[in-house]
Amino acid sequence: MPAYLDIETEGQKADEGGVVAVGIWLRRPEIRLCLTKEQEKSALQWLARQLEEVDLLVTWFGSGFDLPFLMARASLLNVSLRSLRQIRHLDLCEWCRKNLLLSRYSLEHVAKFFGYRRRVPFQGADMSALIKQARRGDKRAADWIKEHCLEDLTLLRKIYRRLSKSLEL
CB of 66 within 8 A of CB of 19? Predict the structure, then answer.
């Protein structure tokens, strides 16, 4: 079964911060918020269980960011994500770079090219402030983090399905 994966993080590198949200879409989208190391470890363990059913993992720049970040954090937190390395992986960003001649290859730009738009405008720079607010107990900030992850999963899934129909990925 194919699955779509996205993460939200506290930093650009795994030694600068942790995973703040893990989102996976198998039958339906599920997001785990991680505002503490304990929640992060629990979310990574949950992800490992979810991956047992997956035969194709679709990400956006997952080979350059999501997967190495997850592997580093899992190693730090002593969580086995061995299955993550065994599943067939399609990095849709890299696929688009190799096969579509576009001016930019961000998820947002490629989604816009295909006519898909975010419901909630969001900038990556907003994440740091939202994380701080969520850690102070701001439920709205926590919901925004989860909503952003869900929108990334939704756009990823739409692009994959669009390309699958026209190009038989």
Answer: no
Rounded to whole angstroms, the Cα distance separating 163 from 169 reads: 7
List the domains of the chain with CATH numbers: 2-167 (3.30.420.10)
Report how far residue 34's alpha carbon sits from residue 9's, in angstroms, rounded to the nearest whole number.
Answer: 9
User: Distance between CA atoms of 129 and 20, rounded to whole angstroms?
Assistant: 12
Q: Over its length of 169 residues, how does the chain's per-residue pLDDT go in tens digits?
A: 789 999 999 989 999 999 999 999 999 999 999 999 999 999 999 999 999 989 999 999 999 999 999 999 999 999 999 989 899 999 999 999 999 999 999 999 999 999 999 887 666 667 889 999 999 999 999 999 999 999 999 999 999 999 998 777 6
